């Protein structure tokens, strides 16, 4: 189970003021439970972990088996909420060098549809040229340009390389039950497909097939992931007292920090495998809270790497930031610092220590230095990088996000702001139906 410690924020805000949120948090929890708050048609994530059936997981596992047996590489095509959750979990659980290993335990997982990079797509399709590959096409709307564009290329390449029949077997769609081009294509082509529930928005969809299918294809245990999330669903439930509910405390603390001028939250990790968990977290909080000219700006750093770049700013820059550190209690493997006869680097004082002991002291030393430098620190400890812990961590952040958005007074479940760039891009590209917008935008250039 994860634990949250806010002690090192308390020189900057008071515990009393954090606990003063108790009634508001209770109201937010009730609004989520009763569906009486803003965005209440997107609350399907709330009790998702405890409602996922064995049959559903078995269906996902069986589909994954087909892909694992027939593919050397599987391309996960999706963007935003249809991409980041799967990548967060897969990268956190994978061997850092899985890609380079000769003996692979399953298909290599690749990503597409999350950018419009011509070179990226060219290089991807080149790499796939002599590979038996499959595709998981993930899009709730089924009309997202980035994903649709990549899928067009990949579908054709897969069919050309592997034949229509095999392509049918190794292309899977995760999309809306009825609407959108991805649904129509899946039905027309006879692809196996999974449904993204109407009431689950992209950034809250990691525990739907959007996340679960790629994760199980990558060889990870989705039963344990869901069990970890279900345990956290209980631990953050509405009847858990405020002081014992980590989602409640996190939501209240960050809102109190925000009220006190701390406008930027930096999610910190000391484990490079957590990089994409931070990317997922940034989307979750950025899209949920950044609206109506309000919202904490979610940023992230990977330490100790970024202590050698962003460390200076964090230590001495503008004092508008606070940090939330994700600390992983136990490593998976064991590696000690070696003794060296010449000791030219002066590191013999560390000989025999585990590398992680050094990392943990870097973590503690950084926390104390940053607090001294005026940066409040929260600390989330997870026992290990495994499926249970990650499931718990993801649900914890989702639940806290729902509460936090309501405390801030916004609708945490919509994202009207992401349409603006799309409208301009379509106008600039002369998309049919955008004639007026095209004229208007050309006049501005
Ligand atoms: O969280 C969200 O709603 C977005 O990030 C979407 O997931 C993203 O835009 C992709 O949308 P779609 O799944 O419709 O392709």
Automatic annotation (TrEMBL):
Subcellular location: Cytoplasm
Swiss-Prot/TrEMBL keywords: Cytoplasm, Gluconeogenesis, Glycolysis, Isomerase
GO cellular component annotations of the record: cytosol
InterPro entries linked: G6P_Isomerase, Phosphoglucose_isomerase_CS, SIS_dom_sf, SIS_PGI_1, SIS_PGI_2
GO annotation, biological process: gluconeogenesis; glucose 6-phosphate metabolic process; glycolytic process
Molecular function, one GO term: carbohydrate derivative binding
Membrane-spanning residues: none
Active site: 287, 422
Pfam families listed in its UniProt record: PGI
Catalyzed reactions: alpha-D-glucose 6-phosphate = beta-D-fructose 6-phosphate
PROSITE patterns named in the record: P_GLUCOSE_ISOMERASE_1, P_GLUCOSE_ISOMERASE_2, P_GLUCOSE_ISOMERASE_3
Pathway, per record: Carbohydrate biosynthesis; gluconeogenesis; Carbohydrate degradation; glycolysis; D-glyceraldehyde 3-phosphate and glycerone phosphate from D-glucose: step 2/4
Source organism, top-level taxon: Bacteria
Assigned EC number: 5.3.1.9
Family from the record: Belongs to the GPI family.
Job of this protein: Catalyzes the reversible isomerization of glucose-6-phosphate to fructose-6-phosphate.
PANTHER family the UniProt entry points to: GLUCOSE-6-PHOSPHATE ISOMERASE
NCBIfam families: PRK14097.1 (NF010697)
HAMAP family the UniProt entry points to: G6P_isomerase
Protein name according to UniProt: Glucose-6-phosphate isomerase
Protein source organism: Bacteroides stercoris
Taxonomic placement: Bacteria, Pseudomonadati, Bacteroidota, Bacteroidia, Bacteroidales
Gene expressing this chain: pgi
